[in-house]
Amino acid sequence: MIQLQNVEKTVKSPAGTVWLLRRVNLNVKEGDFVTIMGPSGAGKTTLLSILGLLDDGWAGEYTFFDQPVHHFDRRKRAELNRKFIGFVFQSYHLLDNLTVQENIDVPLSYRDIPRKQREAMVADILDRFQIVGKKDLFPNQLSGGQQQLVGVARAVAGNPRVILADEPTGNLHSGQALEIMELFRKLNEQGTTIIQVTHSEVNASYGNRVIQLKDGWIVNDAATVAASVTA
Fold it and tell me: Class of the 31-43+83-223 domain?
């Protein structure tokens, strides 16, 4: 499903070229639950941004559902992103001037989906995530955990094949974090491929594989045992 071959990323600084990623080779199969870990500055978020087709300034080869992303322009990459990917951000990235219902509808509005069908999809997601009662609230009326729940709901509203999550529980207390990770577990069991960036060993244990980054290099790629139900 996802194949990276010799992917590299650099930026310019007053001191010269800085390497963010070095010769990254990676294969992700459909249905995987992959965790990317490593110290700050290791390249985790950079790698996730490339996987999510949000970053154009890299070298190497990237094949996504048999599509040669490295040959595509920004418009074509954006089309693939909208069609296949849901993104969950650490800082929620909800639009403050839109209600919960409207926030969930935003990514659907970028796709060629009739309004009535979008309304039905949003209603289904509100019910699935048990947030129907909050559909008319604005983000500043929600707790951090509720905002992240809406962020996850927005990411899955269009039934993406892949969910990319950047420190999805970083701002949450343990109970809220558990709720989000259990949601990810259920989505993965239903066939959604998940790739998360996290510092949490507990979150990592929910997946089947951990990739360790250091100074832009993959230094380890190993299978793990999925978490049992955690109290």
Answer: alpha beta
